[in-house]
Write a structure and sequence with these properties.
single chain, 293 residues, alpha+beta, two-stranded antiparallel ribbon, 9 helices
Length: 293
């Protein structure tokens, strides 16, 4: 629906001019959507930053080889690409259980929430219940709206992605997390995907893992299983990349042209650090590219 001009008849059929009818209500709704989008940009930036705090170093070092199936560890973590680091940190924040028994997301909510803007607080509260990172088959798309099916449950979702489907083709698998933003679902971080000919025996691997998990955790829900084991999606993708002769991670790519994250972190350390301002938003890389792992 095209937005009417201020002096045009209101779309509701009241006979009043738009400015005398729904204009203010629509402007308030637009402001709310902008605030939610700004809050999402902020959290996508600040959560990974919080996860790099010195107190999480030991957990970070344990989590790296678990997520990357030993392709990265504490000694070579700085060779990750920016996209690899973002995907790992998203999992580290939302899904990994620290030695103390909590997630970084829980600690962030406890320590930082009071300093956030109301829109950021509200979105963080919603993200506390975000599902584990999962696998979603691309069924179709309309512009920036992707129609997805959960690889495990078969449940379908419509997901907004600013970059559209990118390089993903119908029938291929997107690896990411779904989070609510502005009344719709979006990906929590930059996504990876599995080409159709690399899906292979993923379902069988997950079924075997779920049986093993059920023996150790009787009565566990599917969400609890995934929270403990969703790194298996990444392990499968890494193995398939090696099978087809593609470097499984950026550090093994002899033709890589990007700067490893260690160089980016070193540049950050050289800058003058100011106290974080939780009342403002910070830039976040647009979610416009996806790569097969």
């Amino acid at each position: 629906m095209n937005k009417p001009g201020r002096n045009d008849p209101c779309y509701c059929g009241s006979g009043k001019k738009y400015k005398q009818c729904h204009l203010r209500e629509d402007q308030a709704a637009e402001r709310e959507l902008r605030e939610q989008a700004d809050a999402a940009r902020f959290l996508r930036f600040d959560l990974p930053r919080f996860a790099r705090d010195e107190r999480f170093v030991a957990d970070f070092d344990r989590a790296l080889p678990l997520y990357w199936n030993n392709q990265y560890d504490a000694d070579n973590a700085g060779q990750m690409s920016e996209f690899e680091a973002l995907r790992f940190l998203d999992w580290f924040v939302f899904d990994y259980t620290l030695e103390e028994g909590r997630r970084i997301l829980d600690i962030y909510q406890e320590e930082v929430s009071g300093e956030l803007k109301p829109s950021q607080q509200a979105l963080l509260k919603n993200w506390m219940d975000a599902p584990p990172a999962g696998a979603y088959e691309l069924l179709g798309y309309e512009g920036q709206m992707l129609h997805l099916r959960d690889f495990l449950t078969g449940e379908t979702f419509d997901v907004f992605e600013a970059g559209g489907r990118g390089n993903v083709k119908i029938g291929e698998i997107i690896l990411d997390r779904l989070v609510p933003v502005s009344g719709q679902l979006e990906f929590s971080t930059v996504a990876a995907f599995l080409p159709k000919d690399e899906i292979g025996d993923l379902a069988e691997k997950l079924e075997a893992a779920q049986k093993a998990d059920a023996e150790e955790y009787p009565g566990a829900t599917q969400e609890e299983f995934l929270r403990r084991n969703n790194q298996l999606f990444i392990h499968h993708a890494l193995a398939e990349a090696e099978r087809v002769g593609r470097p499984p991670v950026a550090r093994l790519d002899p033709h890589r042209t990007d700067a490893p994250v260690q160089q980016q972190y070193d540049r950050e350390k050289e800058q003058v650090h100011r106290p974080r301002n939780y009342g403002s938003t910070k830039p976040h890389m647009a979610q416009t590219r996806r790569k097969a792992v």
